[in-house]
Amino acid sequence: MNATEYFVYLLSCHLNSVEPKGEKRMDWQQIYNLAEINNLTAVIAYEIKRLPSDCRPGGTIGSWFSESYENTVHSFRPNLQSLSTFISTLTEEKIAHALFKGVVLRNYYPFPELRTGSDMDIIIRATDYIRAIEVLKKKGFIEKSVESNAATLQFEKDIFELHTELESINIQSKIYFATPFDDISDASGYTYKLKPIYHLLYIVSHIAHHLQTGGASIKMIMDIDVLIRRYPEMDINEFLLLSDNIKIGKTAETLLAFSKKIFNTPVVLNFTFEDEDTLPLFDDFMHVFSMGKILGTPEENEETTEEKNVLGFIKNVFSNVVKPKEEEEVLTDYQIQLLEELGIKKANEE
Description:
Elements: H1 3-16, H2 28-37, H3 41-49, H4 59-92, E1 97-99, H5 102-105, E2 120-124, H6 129-138, E3 142-146, E4 150-155, E5 158-163, H7 171-176, E6 185-188, E7 191-194, H8 196-213, H9 218-230, H10 236-245, H11 249-263, H12 279-290, H13 302-316, H14 333-341
Parallel strand pairs: 1-7, 2-5
Antiparallel strand pairs: 1-2, 3-4, 4-5, 6-7
Helix pairs in contact: 1-2, 1-3, 2-3, 3-4, 8-9, 8-10, 9-11, 9-12, 10-11
């Protein structure tokens, strides 16, 4: 296995609670880079501890992994305390709030303390937005930024993103996600969380957004895996129907198939990556998600990135589902549907 394959293999071992096999010749610098890009260094460090001693990285790289593991574990309890303060503050003021993404999903991982994130996302009603910010500030939260529908606050070392609406990729998903305090959520007191099938729908929609703009991560695919494992009774056919309803059916199907392929996610699908004709798309996904981005870099301006999103997306992401490499300029019906779902209108004209 090369470094990328071994990186994903270790993640799969983690999700499946399988003891990893060691590789005596491995580019641990590259694996460390991938772990850092995807904010998964502590998870990889845990799996390294389970490898045979003669297969673990030593020296500086080994110490980097160990340090990341220790720092991540030590920060977990303070992080929970910050979240508890956030929830209790809003609850005392009778402000309904819905938890989603990492703040919920990490509880479904084998070791929640190792599933890190850059911030914690919470949604409230728009009518409570200003009041919520004020009561949190009185409780010691520091205002970092405030926009019309989202605010960033900090408590100790933890960052909170306060939203008034769930991110949507199109008008259909905006309609579905417009009622997080009603039919798509469950509640305990003033604390809500998305029902599993709608949480999965949101995760896929969120990934689709990142496939448009860049910044996709293998951790997003891990989130798909752990949510499906946590709720084995979830009706995947109903989920795919809901995905079709918000016009991302093909995207949802391929993302779940990708998760099944690399993590052995327990899900039955019509589309798989087992056929030779689908390998080019699988290879593209492996590159896209393991590198933590798709197109462009932080140094490139928006115009350049937008141009690459239109022209490069076909070649680098959905190239060649059923065509050989020498014919990669020819788009299949499946590719066209994927591109249309993701809103890349000009792609069909190129």
